[in-house]
Amino acid sequence: MNQPEIAAPDVEPAGRATARIRLSGVADDRILLRAAAELTRDIQQPKPLLYWSDFLASAAAGYAALAGAILSRSAPIALICGATAILALYRATLFIHEITHLQNGKLPGFRIAWNLVIGIPTLLPSFLYEGIHILHHSRTRYGTIDDPEYLPLALMRPWTLPVFLILSVLMPAALLLRFAILAPLSLFSPRLRQVLVARLSGLQINPRFRRRTPEGAFARQWLWQELGASVVGVTVLGSLASGLLPVRAFLIAMGVLAGVAVLNQVRTLVAHLWENDGAPLTITAQFLDSTNVPQGFLPLLWAPVGLRFHALHHLLPSLPYHSLAEANRRLSRALGRGSVYERASYPTLRRLVGRLASNTMKRPRHRV
Fold first, then answer.
1. Residue 234 belongs to some domain of the structure
2. Distance (Å, rounded) from C-alpha 61 to C-alpha 72?
3. For the chain, where are the E strands, in sequence order?
């Protein structure tokens, strides 16, 4: 197959490693899009056994390691257990991304099981992501003010990057406040409920995004998930206040959940180049603003469940996570070196963070 015929995007003369891509005006490359569709037709179906075994094993390992961290009286063992719990629960948590993209009929019961095992106990029910993430894949919304999961970080001031990471440490406490205190209070205040739904009910990074009130079947899912998370949150605070839940156990659990949130925030930081200035983009331009980190062992830890192929995911959002590595091999082989497809691949997390940090030093600035 010939390489895609697409004009190379204009870049600033700042060195190949950190030069920004001019995304506006990049036309869709039909060869790239056709290759992505044709070469993956036989690997589109999810494998239920793999999904269930991977998710349940990750959750079991995470909870077991968390218990080890809480019960151990040896600091080194507790730290090892804590780190293991972060990695395992992080992997189990990221199946929320698969829930969002796969039709429920292909994995019956998986959404309910995920919420009962991970989402509700960790105060991260799937309604916080469902209905939000899919907007990020909209051709007309991606990278615009209407995208809940996009900020032009590369065009913003350097201090926004550490703030972006530091805020994730507070996420477990924020979720506890949201479900244990604000959700019950909102039953008595329509105005608070409106604010809660619009601004505090989505895993979004765009502060301008406002969520609509849910309707239909999704509203019913939202109701039982929020009720379950609120019961967990109130129980945790009540047990802590009464002394039934030891402070040490509570702080260790919150620390592990904060570690999961920070790890996910680091992954989010390099999932895109964050170089769009707010204009609507073609699918090819969205692909070029996204990243693949296909090589090495470490990406399997910080971007599990297929998320090390984030650019490829933007080409094929419904492709199951277990098919992404094979799809990447096929496209890389078919399109060849120097292709548009290869230009979305990066060698390391460190290189991507360095590129992003370097681009925040340049002007013009973008204000949120």
1. no
2. 16
3. none
110, two tokens: 């998986």
Query: Is 338 contained in some domain?
Result: yes
Round to whole Å and give the CA distance between 324 and 362: 34
Say whether pLDDT at 368 is over 60. no
Question: For tokens 């199951």, what's the residue?
Answer: 320
* Exposure on the CB side of residue 117, measured as CA atoms within 13 A: 22
In a domain, 297, yes or no: yes
Name the DSSP class of 153.
Answer: G
Structural domain total, the chain: 1
Distance, CA of 367 to chain centre: 23
Its domain, for residue 278, covers 30-45+271-358
Whole-prediction pTM: 0.92
Residues in the chain: 368
Spatial distance between the Cα atoms of 115 and 225, rounded to a whole number of angstroms:
7
* Residue 314 within any structural domain of the chain: yes
Q: What is the pLDDT of residues 149-187, one digit of tens each?
A: 999 999 999 999 999 999 999 999 999 999 999 999 999
221-269 pLDDT tens trace: 999 999 999 999 999 999 999 999 999 999 999 999 999 999 999 999 9
